[in-house]
Amino acid sequence: MATKKPKSSTKSKTKTTKPKTTAAKTVEKPVSEAPKTKKVEEVITTPQGKSCLSGFFAKKYEGKESILTIFKSHKFYGALLGEVIGTGLVTLLLFALSFIGIANLATFGWAMIAILIAVYAFSGACLNPIVTVGMMASRRMSVIRGVMYIVAEIVGAWLGWLIFNSFHMAGGETAADIPGMVEIGENMFWVTAMLELFGGIILAFFFARALKYKRSVFTFGTTVVGGLALATVVAYIISYAFFGIQSGNFLFNPAAALMYQIFPTAGENFGEIIGGVCQALSVYALFPMIGGVCGFYLSDFMSKLSAEE
C-alpha cells in the first residue's frame, strides 16, 4: 500500500519590502528683497549728472498749435473774444481811474479781480501784452496764439477807449479833456523806462506764481491784482517822491497805453514826431514787455531751484 509522503516543507511566503527611500526635497526660500525707499528710487530714476535746471526751456503747454491748425478750433475764437472783452473792460477801468485818482486803488483792485475771474475760463485772462509776451518766452503759450492774443488785446483796448470817449463827448467834453500821459522830460526817459521795466517784472512774476493756484480762480485773481497794485504803488512812490513824475505815467499795460495819448501829435518837423513815437513805444511797450519776460524767467528759475513740482 502506497503511502503519501508528508509535505516536509511548507512554503513560507516572505514578503520582501523594499525600503522606501524618500528623497529630501530642498525648497529654496525666496530671498526677500530689500524694501525700496524713496532715496533708492530717486537714485535709480534720476540720471547722474542731471542739472536741477534741466527742462528749463521745455514746452509747458499741451498739444501742437500752428497757423494751419489753430484756426480750426472754435475754442480759439472764444479765447480771442475773451481777450477783447477783458482788455476793453480793463481799459475802461484805467480811464476811470485817471479821473478818480490813485486814492481809490482798492476799488480798482476789486474791479480788476472781477474782470479776471469773469474772463479766466475763456482765455486764461492775460489781458496784457506784458503777460502774453512772457507766456510766449517761457513756452507756456505757442507763438501764433500769443501774437493773436496781442492783436486781440489791442483791439479790446481800442474798443474800451472808443466807448469811454463816446460817453465823454456826449457829456459835452472833448477828447482833449481826457487825461493822458505826462510828457517825458529830457532827463526822465531812463527813469520812466526803468520803472516800467521793474513794474513789468513784478506783474509777470506774480502772474506766473498765480498760475500755480489756477484751481482757485479767486486766488489767481487776487494774486495777479496784488502784483499790479504793488508795481503801481512802488512806481508812484519812487517817481513822485524822488523825481516829481505824476502817477499817470505808469499803466503797465502797453495795449491800454497806446490808447492813452502816449504819441506826440505835434512837432517842429516829421523827424521829431517819429522820434517821439519811437520814444513812447520803447518806454511804454518795449521795456515793460522785456520786464514781463524777465518776470516769468525769474519765477521758473526759483521753481527749479526749490524743486517745486
Q: Report the CATH topology name.
A: Glycerol uptake facilitator protein
* CATH homologous superfamily label: Glycerol uptake facilitator protein
Shape field: globular
Helix run count? 9
**Proper CATH architecture:** Up-down Bundle
Low-confidence stretches: 6-17, 21-27, 37-46
Written description of the protein model:
The chain has 309 residues and is mostly helical. It has a single domain (70-305), classed as Glycerol uptake facilitator protein (Up-down Bundle). Helices cover 59% and strands 0% of the residues. The protein contains nine helices and no strands. The chain has helices at 38-45, 74-100, 105-123, 129-137, 143-170, 189-210, 217-243, 254-258, 270-305. Helix 2 packs antiparallel against helix 3 and helix 6 runs parallel beside helix 9 (270-305). The longest helix has 36 residues, at 270-305. It is globular and about 60 Å long.
What characteristics describe this protein?
9 helices; Glycerol uptake facilitator protein; mainly alpha; about 300 residues; globular
Helix and strand arrangement:
Layout: H1 38-45, H2 74-100, H3 105-123, H4 129-137, H5 143-170, H6 189-210, H7 217-243, H8 254-258, H9 270-305
Helix pairs in contact: 2-3, 2-5, 3-7, 4-5, 4-9, 6-7, 6-9
Quick take:
With 309 residues, the protein is mainly α. It has helices at residues 38-45, 74-100, 105-123, 129-137, 143-170, 189-210, 217-243, 254-258, 270-305. Helix content is 59%, strand content 0%.
